Amino acid sequence: MRQIDIIKMYAAKKCLVIDDFPEMRGFIRQAVMVFGADSVDTAANGEEALKQCERNDYDIIFADYNLGDASKNGQQILEELRYKNALKNTSLYIMITAEATRDMVFSALEYQPDGYITKPFTQNALRSRLDRIMLEKESIREINQATDNEQYGKGIQLCIKQLGEGSKYKSLLNRKLAGLYVSTQRYSDACVLYKQVIAERPIEWATIGLGKVLLLQGELDSAEVIFRKLIADNCNCMEVYDCLAEILQQKEKNQEALEVVEQALDISPLTILRQQSYADLSERCGDMDKAVKAHRSVVKLSPHSCYEEPENYLGYARSISSQMEKTGTHDKKQLDEATTTLKKLGRRYPNDSQVALQAILVETQVYASSSQREKAQQTMDKADSLYQKIVFDPGQQASPELMLEVAKSMLALGENDQAQGILKEIATLSACDARMAEKLDMLSDEPISKAGKSKAIKLNKEGKILFDAKNYKQAADFFSRGLDIFPNNIALNINMVFALIKDRGGNGLDSEAENFCRSSLKKIDHIPEDHRLFGHYQKLKNKISNL
Fold this sequence. Notes:
By secondary structure, the chain is mainly alpha-helical. It has helices at residues 3-11, 22-35, 46-55, 74-83, 102-110, 123-139, 141-148, 152-164, 170-183, 187-200, 204-216, 220-232, 238-250, 254-267, 272-284, 288-301, 310-327, 332-348, 353-369, 373-391, 400-412, 416-427, 434-443, 450-468, 472-485, 490-504, 511-523, 534-545; strands at residues 14-18, 39-43, 60-64, 92-97, 115-118. Strands 2-1-3-4-5 form a 5-stranded parallel β-sheet, sandwiched between helices.
């Protein structure tokens, strides 16, 4: 392409330069104008940049990664633009940074900017890099415009046409075409194309794409093989780890999924969604030390993130409470950490009455876990008063999340019957989705959801088969894994204790197994005398008490 044509391309572009240093903003602005651009706006921080993006459709955005502690960084700006679907497919987003730490580089690249330039750089270096990126983007401009307008069929036809004409951007067009096939759920066509590309040359993006399509089609084993090989080959795309973790969760291999997410975080720890996933998996696996660590990272990454929400702070304080409850130990540092987090939540959301109430309810759980029964009851009384106002206010409606928090606080105070009643009430609400049903099942004595009931029956049945075959250790491990899913399930707790005792035979329980048994029986000590398993519970309780 002639230089005059490239200058004309720049002249048609509306640009935005985001940098907290005036000198760098001026340098990039002046350079881009020299290249031919007529319209170049600037912003000194993330908030100002996002406001500019709300008012204008930019064709090229240059964003420094580090914009100061008081501002969103360049990654978070890109994250929010994608979250709001405010960045056109035709636009370029160029990340600029003076930093080159591994954490920052991987974190920035995860959101797939169109280009990445490290400071310092000259005007000529910027021109050379930008020309190449822009020419490549211009080659599929019509395809991207069709995608922006949700004219996916048109985009597919344009891709096929350009490929037929022998475009030098064959790889880019194949990648775009495969993505459009996936967007239109033409998974078979996408698979065929990915395999054709891989047959010519094993390109990483095509292999990842094939794995993702197989995952979407439910071919978990085939997808798992692909993602495990990519990781073994040191693939630097973090999405590979996320996909493998998703497969393992679908296979109910949560511990393996946790280890995979842990690997990804060792490489790229600054992604809030992955930290949230790590926290959730840690809790499902019963590893509260890892859960607390992950929740702490989520809170640290929350300010300036579009994924900041009250649950980030509530989850952190709640995890500390669960950690204290599980270990039976607590110290002032843990208590201060939890209460400080809840105060921070109040400052972040000062005008939300339901969030304020949730904070008080979690505080109740924290005090209960730290053996401060009197303080726990005082905060619960305060919370109950506020909750009743919401319940009887025609203008307000208690959310399922708020009701769940009430139930958790009641359980922390030993008010099991009232808590179980609230859990059953939540299950009847139209707003109770599959994720909420899963949370209800985790807290309930018996699963409430249809899926939960089916899973619990299956777990107990398969565990009892092992038990009846006198494979007591395997049975105990199986029941223990079931308790990761249904920690308060009466039958699973009783069967697990039975299996542990049988496994030890006449040798007695070691201290770890004994503590595990005591903890399990304590979780179900509210079992009513008319329950079908009460006799078994009483027998086990007496046996453990005599150790």
